[in-house]
Write a structure and sequence with these properties.
Elements: E1 3-6, H1 14-22, H2 32-40, E2 43-50, E3 56-66, E4 71-79, H3 88-98, E5 107-109, H4 116-120, H5 141-147
Parallel strand pairs: 4-5
Antiparallel strand pairs: 1-2, 2-3, 3-4
Length: about 150
């Protein structure tokens, strides 16, 4: 099976992306319009394989939010269940790390609950100065995060 990575925004299958993100632990039930806005404000990457019915079927997604100078945030890395365990998530993250638009950035951040090993293998580590980081959450999100598994 050949999988092709592309940052062509016109190829993104927003229905699939929305379904994935709405079922994720980090954005359960997210509205499609919010996914569309997130995509529009990010550098997105899709992973595609040949669909037996013709065309390409999207099997992965990731996006980077950045100022293209000093900082980026990696978000929404998703691999379809049918192709998990084959290194596609790592391949998508590596694509961003090797991309000229992100080379030389001072900091790339992310949040994960279950893929620390994947990201550690790509040079990510826990915050060096966690005491300096703060966040502002939408109303109700803090409680949702505290009670989430």
């Amino acid at each position: 099976m050949t999988i092709i990575l592309s940052d062509d925004a016109g190829k993104l299958q927003v229905d699939r992306i929305h379904g994935w993100l709405a079922s994720s632990y980090w954005s359960p039930g997210i509205e499609r319009t919010l996914v569309e806005r997130a995509i529009a404000g990010s550098h997105c990457l899709g992973a595609y394989r040949d669909d037996p019915d013709g065309g390409d079927r999207q099997v992965g997604f990731a996006r980077m939010i950045t100022d293209h100078a000093t900082f980026a945030w990696l978000a929404d890395v998703w691999v379809d269940e049918a192709v998990r365990g084959q290194g596609l998530g790592r391949q998508m993250v590596r694509w961003f790390l090797d991309h000229p638009s992100f080379a030389g950035l001072r900091r790339i951040g992310l949040v994960t609950a279950d893929a620390h090993g994947v990201y550690a293998g790509l040079g990510f580590h826990p915050l060096v100065r966690a005491d300096r980081y703060m966040e502002r959450l939408a109303p109700g999100l803090a409680e949702q995060l505290r009670t989430a598994p």
